[in-house]
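Worked example

This section walks through a single chain of length 662. The input is the sequence exactly as stored; nothing has been trimmed or padded.
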Amino acid sequence: MHLRSLRPSAGGVRSRVREAESVLVEQYGDLVRLAHLVLPDSLGRHRRVLVAHALVQRALRRAGTTRSAPAVPAPRGESRAGDSVERLLLAEVLRAALAHGRRPRLWPARFAHPVALWPRLPLVVGLRLFPRSGGADELALARRLSAAPPAARAAFLLRTVHGLPTDAVHDLLTAADAPDPDAALRTADLLEETSRRSPAALLASQEFDACALQAGPTDLLRRARRTRLLLGAAAIGLVTVVTLTVTGDGTTHRPDTGTGTPAGHAVPRTADLVRTAAGLWDNTSRVDFTAWPTRGIRAHDQDLLTRALTAWTHPQATTRLRLAPATTATPPTTAPQLLYAGDVDDREVVLFYDGQRLARYSETRSAAQDAELSLARVDDADVTTAAAVSLTPAGDGTARYLLAPWVAEAQTRDLLRPDVLARPLHVSKDGVTDPVPTVPTTAGCAERPVLQLRSSPRIAEHHAFLLAPLGGLSPVHLTYTPLPGHGTPPARQPREATGPQALLAWAHQACALRPSSDTGVRAVNNWDFAEQDLPDGGGHAVWTCARADTWRGPGDVTISFRTSRYAPAAPARTITSARATAACSRFGQHVVAASGWRSPNGHWYALAAGSRAVTSLTVSGDVKATERSRTLAVPAPRDPRITVRARLATGEGLDEVGTPGT
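Given that input, the structure is written out below as tokens.
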């Protein structure tokens, strides 16, 4: 497509400005949403809202006077007056939002973006404005959008909200000087494919509405301190001017204090520790450990902080080191973030975060035991996996946790008792919980305690989730994927395991959760991928794939089988397992498995089941049979040895889990 010239209307520039103003008022909400989602996340929620409104309002004059615009077809197949001006407004808003994130080539990196150096209307003083929080689906889409380049986010919105065809979006991106529009469109395709619900419905929710806003106060104590500092600085400045005027000496002197830290300093010091303010989590789009404030009554105990930091930067023989899998003991290259320093039972505990790893230093007050330093990877943590950290060593039967500042409610529950309500868990003002039972280390399975936490409505409304304490620094996030619908429905995504159906499914899998500090597990998802009615009155069967994802990347899977005749908390029967596999993940959405089974009447059968895209099953070995279905049940000899191979709707073959190539 090409750019075409638009002649000014008879009324001249003034009439075009009026026309542009009319269109802007009509389309204001959509334009602000576009600017808000294209602007960089680093601005923070409050600043990004104000900048979005400013960019849309500043686009008015340019759209009223500009003589060229991309030749974009009318949205949703309509042709109405003002389309040309609407396209001009889209182009101007998009160009300004994309340019805001690009720093001029010669502009020093340590300075703020030049656009932010002068005030722009609208201005808000004394309040913070931010969109209302949506649900879990909206939060998941917001995370995917934040990970995408700005041009891809723009393409996604232009197609989804504004209803523009692909070639029109490409032309708009080109006119707005977006880098590589083709790559942006390809990324937008992926964003649309990974959305569980309709993207248009999600984007129309309050999570992405930068016009329907919540208002909250700024940090009142910090504001009062700044006011006093400004008054003090003004007084000092006045005294200095008077002094210079009286002495007549035009020379000023600045003493060299020698307290600056060299830029290339190799060893971090306690004075350099990063301390985050308490309200940052409520004003950032990055909800992870970087948003945790510094807490604990020993946060300013320089001796304790020095011992803790030295144990990491200069390991001592008297300090026991515990490393999670794929975690290095390399000292931090820059000063880490201080998350906590305080007294926990009979220990003094310090918690650091260096952007990739958590470091927990603990020592007994009586020096009866050696100090301990535990390190674990937590890269790419999110609102759930960065919600809690263990402050006490594993193996004591209980643990205390430091909760994220966005956790509004804490409870505990037993996975083996899905019908028993969760119990409230007391949390101190510093975010430290009372002792919580951990998963027993014994071979029995009498209980499986877990944390049930609820996020603040400012993060996501009605967002509760489960964390299982398995001995690591971070508890394991538990999720659930329900059975597919009838026909060949789209793939369902994992959801929080707090609903009745999820709790019933996890009751059969809970005993498989084993305490271990060396697994490095980040999350476990239970996916009920198939169901079938069994012969001989065997009841209704459900096939499950439990996938344990690790912080280092690979995941292990276990296929299990349960029937309606099982007791509510009876462990599911394990069929097969596989290590370091993509099966049962977003990169391995198809699965098939088979097993021998004895009916209540004593007859043996060969059973097989596949996920939603399976169209036929073929078993071989002691039994040979083919069934054009997702499930199969045929008579078999005692303890049959069988393998199964499935065919997908695409015509491809699929081997069962646990065989080479899965």
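What to look for: Residues 230 and 236 are 10 Å apart (CA to CA).
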